[in-house]
Amino acid sequence: LYGFAMTSKSISDGSSLFRSQRALYTVIGAVAGCFFPAGALLIDAFLHDFQYSLFVLPLRNPIHFVIFSAPLVMGFMARLAGIREDRIRGQQERLEEAHKNLTTRAGEMRDIMRNIREGILTINRDYSINQEYSDFLEDIFAASSLAGRQFLDLIYAAHKTDERKALAEYLDILFTNQTTSEAVLKELNPVKHFELARYETRGEVRVRYLLFDFVRIVIQGALDKVMVIVQDRTDEVVREKQRVQEQMEHSEELERIASLINVPVDDINRLVLKSESLIAIMEGFFNEAGAEHAQVRTRLAEILADLHSLKGESRLYRLASLATIIHAIEEKIRTFQSHGPEASDEQDLNLKMDIMFSVSRYKLYVGEIKDTRDRLFERAREQQQHSVGMHPLMEEFMPRLIEFHRELGSMIEALPEHGERSVPRSNGDWTGALDDLLRESMAELHDRGEIRRIHPLQVDSELASENMASLSALRPAIIHLLQNALVHGIETPEERQAAGKSSEGNIRLLLRRVDDTYRITVEDDGAGINLERIKAVLRRQKHPDAAQLDQLQINDAIRIIFHSGFSSAENVSTVAGRGIGMDAVRRLVRQYHGKISVTNRPGRGLAVALIIPTEAIGKQGAADESVNY
């Protein structure tokens, strides 16, 4: 009865008989226990000829009480066993459910890791990659399996020793220094923005732009692993680069249009022709092989001098992008020049390819100048055709109106309150833009921490307009002399005040015609040529005659200044620092059979005069070695 009562209770509680071991075991125990009293009754009845009542049997013999309690005892004990079995089964079911959930979640995680466009992996203390990682990483790194590989080998090739060392030091900080803040770790991350180049099957190079983020995994207070999150930012970076490229092309287009509008077309055409000629020379030179080292150095010096001159003209014409391109070529050629004959063929080939890439960019930009020029001319012709029907009064007064506009602009620029850019532009010549060039050079020096202050450029010209047009061929030399006066001549405001001078320096350009020669003089009130400083620079540059520098005289020092490679500037920029400008002046003057006269006033300034025969202007002669310094 007890067993059946427990079974009924389990069923009434909503439990199935076969799901509840407690009820099932109770029934079995109770039923099994019933065999004891049943057997006892049968035996006792058999012995007494069935003359006793069932209800008085236990009271007649105490052992009957024990026998008749067997169903209760066995049912109760079986119930305890059933309860234990239910608990074990419940734990098993919970474990199975948890395992099922984990399996399901692991499958979901694998699906997520397979489909997300981010890479996730974990690395151990020995920098090895664990088994679990997103399949996306196999596509990124072009590998069939990453498990067990070294993270350093995955990121950098073996020859990238410096980069591998930096990344290893960063990983060591991640694993050993748990006190370092996340902000500091993000700042120290050497692969925060990483450019990964991989060769495709067809020999093409595919570049991916990746973002690496490192997260430390701490379990029970101890660092266990480091999780690496890799984001592929290629699409975003490419779009941003395209946007920047389009913006740069637009800015360059505006720059070219402004230059073509403000600069005489003949000057632009001359710049284009010089550039095309020099590009052809560089293409021929860097594509040939087998030249002697001495011949190579001579030709490189000539190329550098021409590049430096063209860079100065580009800056004068406000073609800043072109000046930047030419400056980059200068830097690469100087690197090639510094290698010398001991450089390997592979190094030379790589440098030449790098130079030719920049030359191609130079060639492309010159072509864009020509295209912009042609489009402007075409637009001007169209406007001229449309203006055929202009009113007679407009046709009569338009030229006078344009002339009045020019005169008004000159008057405004000559006003004192117009600021530092108020340079008198006599005879409508090209010298007015020179002061703007000096201002730009001064701003670049300021950005590098080299402070210079000068008054507006003083231009003193006694030449007629046709003579000024003839001297335009000497503009590169004038630009070099002006920049040399600013960088090497004019002192810092503190140095000038300490020497009892005004904090602002003065630079003058004098243009004269004396008999059958043009005399172009650039003078400043700076420090002049310091012989001891020249000696110190030569010693630092390990000049071949360093042992004889004690006997060096000022005239010898001036000659050295006008040769390629010498510069007293401490930093290299688009303004100065490569020792090319004064060599370019010497070559240009020699090209026109001229002479250079230098007047040095130590502590008070320097004057450099270019003396050019008038008949040589416009007619390029052969080289003349008799240059008077």
Describe this structure in words.
A hairpin with a 2-residue loop joins strand 4 and strand 5. Helix 1 packs antiparallel against helix 2 and helix 16 packs parallel to helix 18. The termini are far apart. This protein has a five-stranded antiparallel beta sheet. Strands 6-7-8-10-9 form a five-stranded mixed beta sheet. The protein is built from 22 helices and ten strands. The chain is elongated. It has 629 residues and is an alpha+beta fold.
* Poorly predicted tracts of residues: 416-428, 620-629
What fraction strand? 5-15%
**What is the overall shape?**
elongated
Number of helices: 22
Lateral strand order in the biggest sheet:
2-1-5-4-3
What average pLDDT do the residues reach? 77
Largest sheet: 5 strands, antiparallel
Structural class: alpha+beta
Tell me the Rg in angstroms: 47 Å
Q: Helicity, in percent?
A: 55-70%
Q: In whole angstroms, how far apart are the ends?
A: 133 Å
**Secondary structure: number of strands:** 10
Describe the structure concisely.
With 629 residues, this protein is of the alpha+beta class. The chain has helices spanning 2-12, 21-47, 57-60, 62-68, 70-115, 136-140, 151-155, 161-176, 182-188, 234-262, 265-287, 293-316, 320-339, 345-386, 392-414, 432-447, 465-470, 475-489, 493-498, 531-540, 554-561, 581-591, and strands at residues 118-123, 129-133, 194-199, 205-219, 222-232, 458-461, 507-514, 517-524, 595-601, 605-613. The chain is elongated.
